[in-house]
Write a structure and sequence with these properties.
By secondary structure, the protein is an alpha/beta fold. The chain has three domains: about 5-115 and about 175-255, Rossmann fold; about 120-175, no CATH class; about 255-355, no CATH class. It is about 35% helix and about 20% strand. It is built from 13 helices and 14 strands. Strands 6-7-8-3-9-10-13-12 form an eight-stranded mixed β-sheet, sandwiched between helices. Strands 2-1-4-5 form a four-stranded antiparallel β-sheet, covered by helices on one side. The protein is globular. Bound molecules: adenosine-5'-triphosphate (ATP) and magnesium ion (MG). Magnesium ion (MG) binds near residues 56 and 57.
């Protein structure tokens, strides 16, 4: 769906407000998610992008309340299809998972049960949520789902165990399982990273098609800016547990407002240039990279967490974390320089550092 229909739609299907997640098992608490707020409309895809450890998976798992209850603290509001997820009791939560909100994991072998056939897992999932459905009816639905995700010889494959399938087929089976109970919301956590490039594209195309057909609301986590552009209506960029920039894909790509977003875009462009150069026979290529190390989540600086790596950082950046600034109707970013004309007019896609 388009950005404008997001604006016009009445109530978002996903509404997260001021989500904070801290893990407390280690010597020092880990602040993995820090004040995240986002909305996703019906039929919309939001891509969540950022470096490893920036809190993308923790944010997603919060929507299903999958964190270890004894060693995590979670606060804020998570509303999905009108349900207050953080307040659900055990029964309501079990019903919510899969029926309202489902997840596709990066590595389906970890999510699928190795001792049951994939077909049995789909049948059980349907019957758990809809006890009046018979095994035969559930099996027919599983077959339909396998056809829909284009698994060849679907009847035979339903009897297969997860380890008997190829990576791409397992990911298709995982998608079928995730859709078995007709959820409104699909959370996809790097669903194609473990697959080779051609299979990745097939799975992304399949997801996009299913999303359109079924009107799903999707949060799609990825490292890959290209996949985010292909899949999403809007992009949220995460850094150190915070969303530092969010907006319609086109706006964020063409006019990134946060230096971290600009650096992500530039490192992708650098990678593409390097690949071209290697293809042209150059033996060594200098790659642009985001300089400095990702922040320590047990000891975050008081101001903007990106400041130590940012070539535009100034004193104000180290004092307090900047609030989100509305750049345009749907585009927000958290950078103190946003108000300053010299930053807006500067070439935002400038590299932050160069490494050999
Ligand atoms: N159960 C847990 N207990 C303690 N720390 C955790 C737990 N789960 C995640 N973390 C920490 O929270 C931070 C954010 O993790 P998260 O998995 O969300 O990163 P991510 O953005 O998904 O990274 P990646 O791209 O590598 O998947 C990391 O520092 C991680 O070590
Ligand atoms: Mg992750």
């Amino acid at each position: 769906m388009s950005a404008s229909s997001y604006q016009n739609s009445s109530k978002p299907v996903i509404e997260v407000r001021d989500l904070n997640v801290t893990f407390t098992a280690g010597a020092k608490p880990v602040r993995a998610v820090d004040g995240v707020s986002l909305q996703v409309a019906s039929g919309e895809t939001l891509a969540l992008i950022g470096e490893s450890g920036s809190g993308k998976s923790v944010t997603l798992r919060s929507l299903l309340r999958l964190h270890p209850p004894r060693s995590s603290r979670i606060s804020g509001q998570v509303q999905v299809a009108g349900m207050e997820v953080l307040g659900l009791n055990a029964n309501a939560l079990a019903d919510y998972r899969g029926r309202v909100c489902s997840m596709i994991f990066q590595e389906p072998l970890l999510a699928l049960d190795p001792v049951y056939s994939v077909g049995d897992q789909i049948v059980e999932s349907i019957r758990k949520h809809e006890p009046t459905v018979t095994r035969t009816q559930a099996h027919a639905r599983a077959l339909e789902l396998f056809e829909r995700v284009r698994i060849p010889s679907p009847e035979r494959r339903l009897a297969a165990f997860p380890h008997e399938m190829s990576g791409g087929m397992r990911q298709r089976a995982m998608i079928a399982l995730a859709l078995a109970c007709k959820p409104q919301v699909l959370l996809a956590d790097e669903p194609t990273t473990a697959l080779d490039a051609t299979v990745q594209i097939q799975i992304l195309l399949l997801l996009r098609e299913l999303q359109r057909e079924l009107g799903l609301s999707i949060i799609f986590v990825t490292h890959d800016m290209g996949a985010a552009v292909e899949m999403a209506d809007r992009i949220a960029v995460m850094y150190a547990g915070r969303i530092v920039e969010m907006g319609p894909v086109r706006d964020v790509i063409r006019h990134p407002q946060h230096p971290y977003t600009a650096a992500l875009l530039e490192s992708r462009a650098g990678m593409e240039r390097a690949t071209d150069a290697l293809n042209e026979g150059h033996a060594r290529v200098r790659l642009l990279a985001i300089g400095g190390a990702p922040p320590d989540l047990t000891n975050l600086p008081p101001g903007c967490a990106f400041a130590p790596r940012c070539m535009y950082a100034q004193d104000a950046c180290r004092v307090a974390a900047p609030d989100a600034v509305q750049v345009s109707a749907e585009h927000t970013a958290r950078c103190v320089r946003l108000g300053a004309a010299h930053w807006r007019d500067a070439p935002v896609a400038a590299p932050l550092a160069t490494s050999a």
